[in-house]
């Protein structure tokens, strides 16, 4: 009874391997016979697949007595088909253990099955312990196992049990598929002096140590459960290899020369072994077997899961059908002499199954899930194909567009046509137009010395000056009369006559600010004055009109005018006192650029140069203070610093709170005297910056920057990171570009209106005479009933016709026509000037430079 | 010896290449179709996911964490963009857990809020902190997309600090930023700043809609107005204005609401909803001309081909529509279809006296209904009146414009389709008092039959009006009679129904059909009576008019004509009394609520009230 149960048990789930298209099973059993002294016997049975019967038939079997001792317990540890180094052929190997009664020593023997179907002992060794954990039978045949942190191995060549001389904290064992089998051990070696560990590899055969990271990256060693070297090559002594490793994180990772190439999520835990299945032209598969009988196959090319099985007792890869490519043999129910339930497949058309219900799915546990997974695998394969296709399509479109462009260029060349440049290319070619209308202004300037009697002069409220870094700023605050606004305001500085007979004019640059007291937004305009000649001669003031003081004039009451000049000429001449002169044109018509009004010069007072009177000390200390001092500082600062205006436009994405963003920057303070301005003083006075953000709509705004150029660029750079991508920043040349375009529009309108008015005046005068004539002639409409009336009607009709013909090409008086043309040309001249100004101020693209 | 590149370097490079590829695909996507975008997005997400699996294939490591979190971010953005919320959420959870592992903390909790708090705390001031914040942004996006606003509220504190760090930290030139730029930090698919901005405004919009839904209008209003200054696309800014307008409308400030709707339209001309809401406000204010104008604009806007979204500087993978999926919001943003707008326009025009215009719109509507493919029409039918009703209304409008021939053709069409289906006898059940007029679904089939009958009868009635208009009294009598014959097939089944007093407030309760029936009875009888009067068959006329008054006492036309007939019959005092009684009737059933075809025809013989009063005076004198 006992015997039968035992034998039955023994026959179940034997150790099985595949060899040369056959599958061989091994098992241990008590030797038959009544004699109790009989020991244990190792039996094997070789089966080959019969296609017709769809079953495995016995090809050979045999047995070998392992132990004659009755009480000795014999067990199979592992079996595998490996290359025999001496015979240079693969041979099935089986490792058996004989446990003695006392369990103090364990005898292991590795047997090979010879071609004549005889079991021959190959290596025999004794150990004082039983092997635990993974045991490897590798080429050689080599038996390798771990014990107490060491890696031990033995082979016919090694003569006895040897230990790898390196102490590994983790290790991975594999073989390189080189012509000469190379069994290697990879592991982490703790370096004593450092806390990090190093990946080392060790070739078992020749004891060579190498850098293990060429096979497996450092971080993977500790989590790798099993590996398979797919390909290996030595190029100039450098090892190159492709490796597949299954990790404890349920991943199958493909490495190429130690670099992660691809990963695949595995559906099961605890991978045990990886095999490669070469299915011929369909590519290769990796078959990963897991603890608890799960099997997962993965396509090598796509690295996607191909199929899954569960409850598999063993999986073997060989050419069972003898067709030249590999198939997998999945054994579900095994007995030593027969396979009760199996499946042979390569997932590429070959499929033989036995013992499995054809209707029922081939895998027992959750079958629907398996289908799902298979389906998913197929889908992923499809998808990867699709991706490749899409990539190709993309490439095709790119190539097509290149082709199209080149064909176009070619036809352009052939037909000698000018190639059409894109907007962008053209923009790079824009000429920087910056010539000034000197001739006009010179005529105007020549009259400056004739000071006409002006009824209401601007009143000088305050005169101040500041010095900074070799420059002096002189400022004047004046009040003008609303009824008599001033334009073209500028300041000039004259040195005190002193001993010299003639005071000299010093080169200055003027700027005008409308003070907030009078006008809500402090717009500024600047004009530079330049002169080298002395006083009795007309000081040829060559003014370059950046922006004539224009339409705002009417509203203005208080104006601040500043002039900046270099300090050195003043100091050189030893002068400490200077006269400040104000130049302006008083005009009732804000429009007239060409007005014949003469410039007026007004003496504002004297400044005594004081080098100690440093700029913006007050402002820097307390920008929140409202005091004249601070305001003067602020105005001086505006005069000294370079000035840029940027139009920021983001058509699709609102700009958000730019003011808030500026205020959050380091060292940003609000200036109370002019709350629109923000003072940015991040690092010292040389890096001062004044900013004014004026939001027009949520989608556009204007940014005024007063700073050095470098600072401005730095600021813009960081601003760009904040602004939306679709946003465009355009520099407006000088301030008040808007004013210029507005003026241009007004000028055009005026031109149009005047033309209409003059023309209609011309025609009306003529018409009126005829009207009088007509009024006398035909007061009443004649009655159309009578013959006489009808004739009258006809006559009237005729006359009307003539008159309307006349109207179509009227004759006008020559004198009147001349007057019309004259006045029109005057008005058109104004329009031209406005257009000129508008072009100067209109936004230029960034590439054409900020400073024109 | 050959030294393989470090994993970190390799993976960073891979990530950056992927991000660049994604951005290229998106940037070049101006012309590509939605399908192509989707497929490229799918490709990106699978590639990122693969990379992430590689990175997460090894135990968490401090050096790798920054890259890992960046890849998690990229993967999640792609997943979220494809509405794969659960996958994205799972990745976020795993990432947070790995962050905790790296920093040596442990949080054995599944509550995402607790997990996030722990994650943020453990990342603390390390280099990981911004990356953990970026992931929190995505969590925020997921909550928003799944309308879990309460979670966002729970982490309000963290979110606002997040906004500060992510948004304001950009471009302030601080040393940390400069360092960040130098050390090659992994690229991201979507700038966290843009994502945060998007999230901020979308959250404000979603919360605003929610509050508005809960009736907390003023609270919602202040939030929305604050949100309107946030940086965002035109469409989103327009939404804030639109919702502000809705809040104001709720708070009974129609003019201010109109201002807001105007602002919304100015901001984004594609914001049709603002136009629709303005129309509703005009309707509420009783400004018919403006309402018609708005309806016309709305219709022409809806008929425009759908405007393509403008291409920003590279389309962002996460679209606002993904984040604004809450029901209360979609209800606020819904706009009726072009056809139903056209119908409202047509009806409104006819009712407000712009009949010719109205007729044109009716004809357009019918043409559209016939020409459009059946599938599209089926979707429309639920909001539009039934086809026969449309025909009847169009016919009536035609009659108003004195085109009786066309009108009759329309009515014939209705009769030909419905008459065969009219049953011999219909029982109209009175709905129970408590249930009111809503309980119409008792038997769909029976109701359909009643509707058929009423339509056929109405068609005859309108045809009668046509003949009356043409002064073909005989024909008119015939058609009115047909109408009456159909109407008497309806049997009322109710015990306590008193047809004598169908006062205005009772009308609602008694169901629409009943009201229609009574009104139609009154009209057809009265007009047959009037026709008889014209043919001098005064007795028949008197009978009909009196019956009409019984069926529908409110109809002043019947009352006046009844008096007239009495007068002509010589019963002058009775006539006077009848007139007086009619004039004393003040209850004017709201004409607007009635179907167009049940209104008093605007043509036909008229009685001058002034003249009648004179007659009474004379009678009194004599």
From TrEMBL, chain A:
One of its GO terms (biological process) is interstrand cross-link repair. Residues 522-547 are annotated as: Disordered. One of its GO terms (cellular component) is Fanconi anaemia nuclear complex. It comes from the Eukaryota. Residues 522-535 have a biased composition (Low complexity). This is Fanconi anemia group B protein isoform X1. The gene is fancb.
Automatic annotation (TrEMBL), chain B:
The lineage of its organism: Eukaryota, Metazoa, Chordata, Craniata, Vertebrata. InterPro entries: FANCG (IPR039684), TPR-like_helical_dom_sf (IPR011990), TPR_rpt (IPR019734). SMART domains: TPR. GO terms for cellular component: Fanconi anaemia nuclear complex. This is Fanconi anemia group G protein isoform X1. Signal peptide: none annotated. It comes from Pundamilia nyererei. It holds the Pfam family TPR_8. GO terms for biological process: interstrand cross-link repair. SUPFAM superfamilies: TPR-like.
């Amino acid at each position: 009874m006992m015997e039968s149960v035992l034998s039955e048990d023994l026959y179940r789930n034997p150790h099985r391997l595949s060899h040369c298209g056959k599958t061989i099973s091994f098992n241990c059993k008590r030797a038959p016979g009544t004699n109790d002294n009989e020991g244990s016997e190792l039996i094997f049975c070789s089966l080959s697949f019969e296609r017709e019967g769809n079953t495995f038939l016995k090809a050979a079997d045999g047995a070998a007595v392992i132990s004659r001792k009755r009480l000795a317990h014999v067990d199979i540890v592992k079996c595998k088909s490996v290359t025999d180094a001496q015979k240079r052929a693969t041979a099935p190997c089986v490792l058996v253990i004989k446990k003695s009664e006392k369990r103090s020593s364990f005898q292991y023997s590795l047997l090979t099955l010879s071609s004549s179907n005889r079991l021959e002992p190959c290596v025999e060794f004794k150990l004082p312990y039983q092997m635990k954990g993974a045991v490897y039978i590798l080429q050689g045949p080599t038996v390798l196992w771990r014990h107490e942190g060491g890696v031990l191995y033995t082979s016919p060549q090694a003569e006895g049990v040897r230990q790898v001389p390196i102490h590994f904290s983790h290790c991975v064992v594999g073989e390189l598929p080189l012509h000469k089998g190379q069994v290697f051990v990879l592991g982490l070696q703790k370096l004593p002096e450092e806390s990090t560990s190093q990946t080392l590899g060790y070739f078992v055969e020749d004891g060579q140590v190498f850098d293990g990271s060429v096979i497996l990256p450092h971080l993977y060693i500790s989590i790798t459960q099993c590996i398979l070297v797919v390909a290996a090559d030595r190029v100039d002594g450098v090892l190159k290899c492709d490796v597949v490793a299954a990790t404890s994180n349920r991943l199958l990772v493909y490495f190429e020369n130690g670099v992660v190439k691809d990963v695949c999520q595995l559906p099961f835990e605890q991978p045990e072994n990886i095999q490669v299945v070469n299915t011929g032209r369909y590519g290769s598969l990796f078959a990963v077997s897991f603890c608890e009988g799960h099997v997962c196959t993965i396509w090598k090319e796509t690295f996607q899961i191909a199929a899954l099985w569960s409850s598999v007792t063993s999986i073997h890869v060989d050419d069972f059908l003898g067709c030249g490519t590999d198939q997998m043999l999945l054994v579900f129910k095994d007995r030593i002499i027969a396979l009760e339930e199996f499946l042979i497949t390569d997932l590429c058309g070959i499929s033989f199954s036995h013992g499995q219900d054809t209707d029922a799915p081939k895998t027992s546990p959750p079958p629907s899930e398996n289908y799902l997974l298979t389906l998913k695998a197929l889908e992923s394969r499809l998808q990867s194909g699709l991706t490749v296709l899409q990539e190709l399509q993309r490439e095709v479109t790119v190539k097509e567009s290149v082709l199209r462009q080149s064909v176009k260029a070619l036809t352009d060349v052939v037909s000698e046509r000018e190639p059409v440049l894109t907007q962008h290319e053209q923009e790079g070619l824009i000429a920087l137009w910056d010539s000034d209308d000197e001739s006009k202004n010179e005529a105007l300037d020549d009259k400056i010395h004739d000071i006409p009697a002006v009824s209401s002069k601007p009143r000088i409220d305050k005169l101040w000056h500041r010095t900074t870094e070799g420059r002096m700023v002189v400022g004047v605050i004046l009040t003008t009369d609303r009824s008599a606004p001033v334009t073209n305001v500028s300041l000039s500085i004259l040195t005190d006559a002193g001993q010299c007979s003639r005071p000299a004019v010093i080169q200055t640059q003027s700027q005008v600010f409308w003070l907030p007291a009078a006008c809500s937004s402090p717009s500024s305009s600047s004009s530079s004055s330049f002169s080298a000649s002395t006083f009795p001669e007309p000081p040829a003031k060559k003014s370059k009109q950046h922006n004539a003081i224009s339409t705002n004039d009417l509203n203005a009451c208080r104006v601040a005018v500043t002039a900046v000049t270099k300090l050195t000429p003043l100091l050189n001449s030893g002068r400490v006192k200077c006269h400040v002169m104000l130049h302006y044109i008083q005009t009732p018509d804000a429009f007239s650029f060409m007005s014949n009004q003469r410039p007026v010069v007004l003496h504002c007072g004297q400044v005594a140069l004081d080098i100690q009177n440093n700029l913006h000390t007050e402002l820097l200390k307390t920008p929140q203070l409202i005091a004249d001092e601070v305001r003067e500082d602020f105005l001086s600062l505006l005069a000294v610093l370079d000035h840029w205006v940027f139009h920021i436009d983001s058509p699709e994405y609102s700009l958000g709170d730019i003011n808030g963003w500026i205020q959050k920057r380091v060292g940003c303070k609000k200036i109370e005297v002019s709350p629109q301005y923000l003072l940015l003083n991040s690092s010292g006075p040389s890096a001062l910056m004044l900013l004014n953000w004026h939001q027009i709509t949520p989608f556009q705004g204007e940014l005024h920057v007063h700073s050095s150029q470098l600072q401005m660029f730095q600021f813009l750079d960081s601003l760009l990171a904040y602004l939306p991508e679709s946003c465009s920043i355009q520099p407006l040349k000088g301030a008040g570009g808007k004013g210029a375009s507005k003026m241009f529009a007004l000028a055009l309108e005026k031109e149009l209106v005047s033309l209409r008015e003059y023309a209609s005046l011309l025609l009306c005068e003529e018409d009126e005479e005829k009207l009088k004539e007509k009024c006398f002639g035909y007061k009443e409409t004649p009655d159309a009933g009578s013959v006489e009336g009808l004739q009258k009607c006809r006559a009237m009709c005729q006359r009307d016709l003539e008159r309307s013909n006349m109207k179509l090409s009227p004759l006008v008086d020559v004198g009147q026509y001349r007057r019309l043309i004259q006045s029109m040309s005057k008005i058109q001249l104004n329009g031209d000037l406005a257009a000129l100004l508008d072009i100067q101020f209109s936004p230029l693209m960034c590439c054409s430079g900020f400073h024109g | 010896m050959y030294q393989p590149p470090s994993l970190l370097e390799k993976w960073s490079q891979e990530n950056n290449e992927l991000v660049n590829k994604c951005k290229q695909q998106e940037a070049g996507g101006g012309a590509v179709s939605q399908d192509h975008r989707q497929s490229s997005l799918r490709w990106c997400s699978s590639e990122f996911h693969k990379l992430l699996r590689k990175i997460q294939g090894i135990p968490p490591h401090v050096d790798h964490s920054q890259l890992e979190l960046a890849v998690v971010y990229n993967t999640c953005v792609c997943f979220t963009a494809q509405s794969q919320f659960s996958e994205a959420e799972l990745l976020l959870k795993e990432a947070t857990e790995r962050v905790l592992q790296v920093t040596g903390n442990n949080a054995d909790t599944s509550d995402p809020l607790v997990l996030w708090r722990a994650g943020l705390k453990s990342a603390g001031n390390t280099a990981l902190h911004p990356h953990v914040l970026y992931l929190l942004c995505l969590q925020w996006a997921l909550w928003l997309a799944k309308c879990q606003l309460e979670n966002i509220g729970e982490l309000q504190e963290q979110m606002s600090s997040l906004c500060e760090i992510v948004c304001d930290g950009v471009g302030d030139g601080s040393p940390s930023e400069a360092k960040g730029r130098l050390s090659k930090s992994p690229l991201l698919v979507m700038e966290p700043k843009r994502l945060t901005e998007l999230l901020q405004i979308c959250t404000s919009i979603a919360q605003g809609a929610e509050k508005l839904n809960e009736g907390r209008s003023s609270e919602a209003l202040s939030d929305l107005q604050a949100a309107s200054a946030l940086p965002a696309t035109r469409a989103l800014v327009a939404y804030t204005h639109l919702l502000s307008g809705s809040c104001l409308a709720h708070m009974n400030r129609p003019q201010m609401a109109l201002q807001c709707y105007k602002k919304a339209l100015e901001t984004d001309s594609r914001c049709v909803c603002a136009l629709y809401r303005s129309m509703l406000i005009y309707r509420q204010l009783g400004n018919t001309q403006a309402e018609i104008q708005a309806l016309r604009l709305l219709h022409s806007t809806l008929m425009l081909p759908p405007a393509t979204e403008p291409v920003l500087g590279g389309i962002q993978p996460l679209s606002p529509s993904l984040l604004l999926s809450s029901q209360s919001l979609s209800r606020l943003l819904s706009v009726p279809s072009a056809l139903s707008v056209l119908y409202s326009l047509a009806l409104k025009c006819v009712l407000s006296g712009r009949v010719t215009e109205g007729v044109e719109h009716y004809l357009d509507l019918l043409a559209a209904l016939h020409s459009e493919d059946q599938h599209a029409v089926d979707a429309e039918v639920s909001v539009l009146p039934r086809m026969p009703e449309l025909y009847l209304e169009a016919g009536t409008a035609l009659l108003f414009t004195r085109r009786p021939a066309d009108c009759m053709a329309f009515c014939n069409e209705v009769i030909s389709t419905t008459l065969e289906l009219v049953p011999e006898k219909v029982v109209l059940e009175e709905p129970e008092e408590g249930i009111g007029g809503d309980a119409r679904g008792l038997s769909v089939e029976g109701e359909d039959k009643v509707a058929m009958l009423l339509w056929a009868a109405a068609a005859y009635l309108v045809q009668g009006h046509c003949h009356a208009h043409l002064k073909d009294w005989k024909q008119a009598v015939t058609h009115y009679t047909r109408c009456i014959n159909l109407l008497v097939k309806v049997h009322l089944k109710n015990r306590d129904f008193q047809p004598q007093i169908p006062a205005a407030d009772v009308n609602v309760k008694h169901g629409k059909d009943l009201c229609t029936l009574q009104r139609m009875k009154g009209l057809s009888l009265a007009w047959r009576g009037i026709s008889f009067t014209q043919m001098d068959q005064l007795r028949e006329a008197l009978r009909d008019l009196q019956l009409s008054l019984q069926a529908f006492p409110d109809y002043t036309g019947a009352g006046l004509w009844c008096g007239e007939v009495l007068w002509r019959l010589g019963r002058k005092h009775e006539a006077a009394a009848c007139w007086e009684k009619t004039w004393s009737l003040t209850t004017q059933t709201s004409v607007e609520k009635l179907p167009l075809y049940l209104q008093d025809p605007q043509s036909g013989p008229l009685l001058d009230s002034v003249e009648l009063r004179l007659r009474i005076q004379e009678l009194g004198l004599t």
